[in-house]
Amino acid sequence: MALEQDRLPGSPASLDDIIQRLKVSGNDFPEQAMRDARACAKEITPKLIQLLQEVTERAKRGDISEDNSQLFAVFLLAEFHAKEAAPAIIDSLSLPGEGPFDLFGDVTLEDFREILAGLATEVPELLDSMIRNREVDPILRGAVADVYQFWVRDGVISRLDAVNKLRQFLHRATKDRELHLSASIVSTLCGLYPQEALPDIRKAFQKGLIDRMVIRERDVQEAIEAGEEGMAKELRQLRPTGVGDAIETLGRWFKPASYSNRSRLDEGIHPPEPKFVDLLASDEDEYEPSTIHRTDRRVGRNESCPCGSGKKFKNCCLGRTDQD
Predict the structure, then answer these.
(1) Positive or negative, the Cα torsion across 243, 141, 71, 58?
(2) Which of 152, 147, 81 is nearest to 119 (CA)?
(3) How far is CA 45 from each of CA 15, 77, 216, 317, rounded to the nearest angstrom?
(4) % of the chain residues with pLDDT over 70
(5) Mean predicted confidence (pLDDT) in 251-258
(6) Confidence tier at 313 by pLDDT (50, 70, 90)
(7) What is the DSSP letter of 279?
(8) What letter would DSSP give residue 191?
(9) CB contact at 8 A, 211 and 180
(10) pLDDT band for position 106 (50/70/90)?
(11) Considering just the CA atoms, what is the radius of gyration of the chain in Å?
(12) Residue 266: CB atoms within 10 Å
């Protein structure tokens, strides 16, 4: 009888059993274990956080987990709205170099923005520290900076406060000559009507500190000309904050044949490209209007990449395609 009681949902033995069943590798997907975890969300949350902490500490010593339990743990914690997990998640993403990608794979860039936007609202200083940490991959840091767009849309922070925070990041990134991070932050600013940041952005471009494979002067011009209406449109393109259903979300990665690829490419209609007053022109790089008219629609920076990778266009093929 005691053994049967130990196996009741929420009992220590049952919780440990669920954690063990999450430790699968390759393309195996522990759907039933995740459903069981969902049934005892409050009780299993501390164990999921502990699992993530232990995996992160081992990774710091060079011992990378051979299973995907940390990935399943993070998505379950996001579904459970477990804000107490934010420090552990940020710590795992702050591993140097390829560390976060070793733990979480390609999911890192695309879904952790939404996860952190939902869970890190009470610890923004930890998020800021990660963005400033030069040991962390600059592409990942740039993607995490996008959280400020989510927070503006969700009413967590004002547009002006977000712009000023991003200006601080941009100043630091350009001072350290981090081209890709600088470009990513400028791209994030472009979604927030960055009129206050225009002098900083112009200076960075003129000094050659912006990777034009990620963002161009014309993109900034568009954002300024579009005004607050353009900002609202950019923010509407963002995906929902957090994770509504961890099983469905991860199922698209682990069981692609069974889960639809919900691309945003067919959503919305982009208006004709306007003519711009050149706000950023310098002697070296001056924008000249073209008389060529496009017949295909322009892919927005925050939309899914048309190559089918599942990543945002600006974090994938923007620099390899011609959208001029």
Answers:
(1) negative
(2) 81
(3) 10, 7, 43, 37
(4) 74
(5) 68
(6) low
(7) S
(8) T
(9) yes
(10) confident
(11) 21
(12) 7
Q: Given pLDDT bands bounded at 50, 70 and 90, which one contains residue 309?
A: low
- Residue 292, sorted as left (phi over 0), alpha (psi -120 to 50) or beta, turns out to be beta
Closest CA to 190 of 154, 145, 249: 145
The span from the CA of 180 to the CA of 201, in Å, is: 14
Question: Are the CB atoms for 214 and 143 separated by under 8 Å?
Answer: no
CB 47 within 8 A of CB 37: no
CA distance 58 to 65: 8
Give the pLDDT of residue 251: 85
* pLDDT above 50 (res 282): no
Instruction: Report whether 108 contacts 64 (CB < 8 A).
Output: no
Cβ neighbours for 125, distance < 8 A, ≥ 6 positions apart: none
Q: Could you tell me the two tokens for 234?
A: 């950019």
Helix 138-145, helix 107-119: angle, nearest 10 = 40
- The amino acid present at 87, given as its one-letter code, is P
Question: Among all chains, which residue has been given the structure tokens 């919305």?
Answer: 268
